[in-house]
Amino acid sequence: MYYASSVTTLSISKDKDNFIFLKWFAMFRLQGHVIPDKKAIWIGLTIVYGIGLSRSKTLLDGLNIPLELKVKDLSDEQQKAISDAMKEIVVENDLKRNVASYIKRLKEIKCYRGVRHNL
Q: What is the pTM of this model?
């Protein structure tokens, strides 16, 4: 399940004189995670399981997106490009399933690394 969307949200806040302020902002959702708006995009992508700092940098370099760009400053085309590039990477539940099957195989052949997982 790979999807990304930009959701518009309303933020309501009050100041000390009880004036109400309304602020609309867009959130970048990727793989079911909301990427924080104030973070740099190369740091924000690490919220997704399977994306670390190095993979985030290579992904953004391949898409010609500046690393220091804030999530709130991403255009819709850039968000679409990131979500399309994520389709080719094994992340989240697929990655967890692969790791579990590798460990299970090691246990079945009773190699040292598999035995250590049984302890």
A: 0.73
